[in-house]
Write a structure and sequence with these properties.
Layout (H helix, E strand, L loop, with lengths): L5 E7 L5 H16 L2 E5 L13 H18 L2 E5 L5 H12 L4 E6 L8 H4 L6 E6 L4 H12 L14 H14 L4 H15 L6
Parallel strand pairs: 1-2, 1-3, 3-4, 4-5
Helix pairs in contact: 6-7
């Protein structure tokens, strides 16, 4: 059976080292090898603010990155040189229920962002990599991510009592929506059900 192609948005800090650029190309090549169609931000382009380009350029970059996140199945970021833009992209992808792989080169790594370390999402995978384990880290993530990519929507009609109960659970579980409550409950049940093969 042929696997579906995963659409991946890949990004990294454009202000990085030559080693990071080499690693970025390896990451992209491995994603392609494992059946991904990779969309990426142009590497090595300085996106800093200037009076000449101003808010219009920043607005275009912002919208371009949002579109790339929305249009793709997963997000992969190389964050050995983290930036506020990358952190924003990661949380935006998680907010839209996209699996996210965050990669740190063990030789160049700076301290991971505390917000990432404390994030409880089962869609977020943080990996420290080197030349010897990069391929395995990517392959393992893609195998799991394929199962977490949203493929279907359905509507449920609720009684007033069930709606109120879901609102109660939403607050208790600190979820952003009733949909998230149901997804968390189903994911927990699937993990705990020894008879379910996943």
């Amino acid at each position: 059976m042929k696997k579906d192609i995963i659409k991946v948005f890949f990004d990294s800090n454009p202000v990085s080292s030559k080693k990071t650029e080499t690693n970025n190309q390896k990451i992209i090549n491995l994603l392609n090898k494992y059946g991904c169609n990779v969309i990426q931000t142009v590497m090595g382009v300085e996106f800093s603010y200037s009076e000449m380009q101003g808010k219009k350029a920043a607005f275009n970059i912002y919208n371009s990155k949002l579109k790339d996140i929305y249009d793709n199945d997963i997000l992969v970021c190389e964050v050995s040189f983290p930036s506020p833009t990358l952190i924003f992209e990661i949380f935006e992808a998680l907010n839209h229920k996209k699996p996210v792989l965050v990669l740190y080169d063990e030789k160049q790594m700076r301290t991971p962002d505390i917000a990432l370390l404390g994030n409880p999402s089962n869609l977020l995978v943080l990996e420290v990599y080197n030349e010897n384990n990069l391929e395995k880290k990517i392959a393992d993530f893609l195998k799991k991510a394929r199962k977490k990519i949203s493929i279907a929507r359905f509507t449920v009609r609720l009684t007033k009592e069930m709606s109120e109960y879901l609102n109660h659970l939403k607050a208790k579980m600190q979820c952003s929506s009733k949909n998230d409550v149901i997804l968390e409950i189903l994911e927990k049940m699937a993990r705990e059900n020894s008879g379910f093969q996943h």
